[in-house]
Design brief:
It contains 14 helices and 10 strands. A hairpin with a 6-residue loop joins strand 5 and strand 6. It has a 4-stranded mixed β-sheet with strand order 3-1-2-4. A 4-stranded mixed β-sheet has the order 7-6-5-8, with helices on both faces. Among the domains are: 60 residues, DNA Methylphosphotriester Repair Domain (3-Layer(aba) Sandwich); 51 residues, no CATH class; 86 residues, Winged helix-like DNA-binding domain superfamily/Winged helix DNA-binding domain (Arc Repressor Mutant, subunit A, Orthogonal Bundle), CATH 1.10.10.10. It has 357 residues and is of the alpha/beta class.
């Protein structure tokens, strides 16, 4: 679906001119090469008759085009922003640093510009992202059996009250609400798309979310209530399995997961999640298709709500569901992650697997 794109002649003129105003708003699929590009791609311009124009990345993928290796249309636009790139590199180098706006200004950055750029690309500010990185250091200490005061110092907080408040904002509960002898335990690990928090008991995985997801505090509170307060830090075997299988997934070695999952939801919601687990990697589907497979074609909105309520990211692949028009609709982990996951899974597409048609 072309959505609000102008005619092809206008778009081809923008392609020839490398017009940056169309970056992220339109893409060109080149039939002679099978790739799709940004309109600002530096490669030699294709002939007019070899061009097909699309409004979204999902449309390009569904039409069978693969991403260009020169302009990287699937890469988050943030990677092309030198301000964001430099600050992310600084944060990666020293994750426990206590960043302030004065630090940004001393590096030659305008704090308001930085705030808007990070909010636009990541849905959070750089200072909040830095604060979260510090808190993750504290979470590691707690997961290893350390005391709250040790976690506070590891995270770089001078005030216990400030640490508890920041911790509660991230996880929805203060450190003291997590029990040392808990039957359900939370830990985190890094992935190429950012830190993820996993919660499991001795036999099943209950939650797997990106640490910066806004719904995470609410989800943990709900889980805390469901397990009658027996929620703590640390990990059981299902968390180790999740980390290992996600590593294989991101490294391109395996598209599948066979983790034992504990699903928390209504029967309808769980039925949607079970169907999501049958969607092959490298494919995309619509909410209406899921509703039809459930035998409830009128329940498209309910399917969308169930999709959004998924609290076991990637393993239950809600990222493989697009809008009816092929657009990358909302994703709790951020649309930039949804784009990256769809691109990564092109490697696993059924037609790319040996022995498959």
């Amino acid at each position: 679906m072309r959505l609000d794109l102008p005619d092809d002649d206008t778009l081809y003129s923008a392609l020839v001119a490398c017009d940056p105003s169309w970056d992220g708003r339109a893409y060109v699929g080149v039939t002679s090469t099978g790739v799709f590009c940004r309109l600002t791609c530096p490669a030699r311009k294709p002939k007019r008759e070899n061009c097909q124009f699309f409004a979204t990345i999902a449309e390009c993928l569904n039409a069978g085009f693969r991403a260009c290796k020169r302009c990287h249309p699937m890469a988050p636009a943030a990677q092309a922003d030198p301000v964001i790139a430099s600050l992310l590199a600084a944060l990666d180098k020293d994750p426990t640093r206590r960043w302030r706006e004065a630090d940004l200004a001393s590096m030659g950055h305008d704090p308001s510009t930085v705030r808007r750029a990070f909010k636009r690309h990541f849905g959070t500010t750089f200072l909040d992202m830095a604060r979260q990185a510090r808190l993750q250091a504290g979470l590691t200490t707690l997961a290893q059996g350390g005391k709250v005061i040790d976690a506070q110092l590891e995270a770089g907080f001078e005030s216990p009250a400030a640490f508890r408040a920041a911790f509660a904002k991230l996880l929805g509960m203060p450190p003291g609400a997590f029990r040392a002898d808990a039957m359900v335990r939370a830990d985190w690990f890094d992935t190429p798309l950012g830190a993820m928090i996993a919660v499991s008991d001795r036999t099943h995985l209950h939650l797997l979310e990106f640490a910066d997801r806004k719904a995470l505090p609410t989800e943990l509170k709900r889980l805390h209530k469901a397990c009658k307060g027996s929620l703590g830090f640390g990990r059981f075997a299902p968390t180790d399995q999740a980390e290992a299988q996600l590593d294989a997934f991101f490294q391109g070695r395996s598209p599948g997961f066979d983790l034992p999952l504990a699903l928390h939801g209504t029967e309808f919601t769980k039925s949607v999640w079970r169907i999501l687990q049958t969607l092959p990697a490298g494919t995309t589907h619509s909410y209406s298709e899921i509703a039809r497979r459930l035998g409830r074609p009128e329940a498209v909105r309910a399917v969308a709500r169930a999709n959004g309520a998924n609290q076991i990211a990637i393993v239950i692949p809600c990222h493989r569901v697009l809008g009816a028009d092929g657009t990358l609709t909302g994703y709790g982990g951020g649309l930039w992650r949804k784009q990256k996951l769809i691109e990564l899974e092109r490697h696993y597409a059924p037609q790319n697997r040996s022995g498959c048609r």
